[in-house]
Specification:
Blueprint (H helix, E strand, L loop, with lengths): L9 H4 L8 H4 L6 H20 L16
Length: about 70
Amino acid sequence: LPISRLAGAPAARDGNLYAVDANLLARSSPRLLDGVEQVCAALDQARQRREAGGERRGAQQPTAAKP
C-alpha cells in the first residue's frame, strides 16, 4: 500500500509505521529468522514508545534494526 493511503491509520498518526524487508519474510528459509528479528525489533520500539508517554504525533518515524 502507498504510505499516503495509510495516513489516517492510528499507527501512522502515532508514528508507528515500520519497514521490514519483505524478502526475508516471504520465503521459508533460514533468512526468515532475520525477518522475524526485524518484526520483533519494530514491535519493541512501538511498545517502548507507548510506555514512555504514549503517542508522539509529529515525531520522527523510527526504523527497525537492519542486519
